[in-house]
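S.,

Sequence below, as promised.
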Amino acid sequence: MNPQTILQYDGSFDGFLSSVFLVYEQKINAPIIQKQYEQNNQLFTISEIVYTDEAKAKRVWRGLQKKISKSQQKVIFKAFLSEIKGVENTLLSYIKKIFKEPNSNYLDYGDKDILKISQVAKMVEREKHRMEAFVRFKQTKDNTYIATVEPDFNVLPLLIHHFKDRYADQKWLIYDIKRAYGIYYNLHKVEIITLNSISKLNPNIEKDTFSERELDFQQLWKSYFNSVNIKSRKNSKLHIQHLPKRYWKYLIEKNEF
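The prediction came back faster than expected:
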């Protein structure tokens, strides 16, 4: 029995594409691609560390660009951002089918892998739209607008274009508490950052971090929210359907200091 090869990568998209390159380069039969921190409990396997190589990743991506449309490329990227366990292997199967088909713009959505990737990408897209709607910025004393989030999927890379266009005239930071990184706009470009002290971006952040103007606006927003909330027409079930409780702790109108 030949042992199965497990390719362990750093969790980045370029790292994943580097793994795909290695599968073709070494002609690895039925590999398992997984993040380095994931445990391997399978018997009769050998592990190989995949070092992220941007040149190899670009070769794979350019190969896909020649075979599929931009929308299909986005489907691959969104599915990867889902972080669902094992999604890398479903994506690998999906990519193999793309390279195998002479005309990949007409993929068979009856295929379980192709259908699964399409469904996962839609889930990620929905979470992206929720974040665009539910992000609440707060102005700090140094005139930076910050927001903390904990999305189900790793959607921060998908939010850059929306918030850069919408808030081009102010410095802002959206920080993913769950994944411990954020996207920061400095009036010129968006950068990926990590913070040593995440506690400073706790949803119950200290009052003295905010500007006085921000605290006034927060109070006004809460007053407006309460005034338009007609108790006799309250429909809690419908409200939670449109605004799930998992988002509430980051919404100004749902929290008190």
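Residues 135-254 form one domain.

Coffee later?
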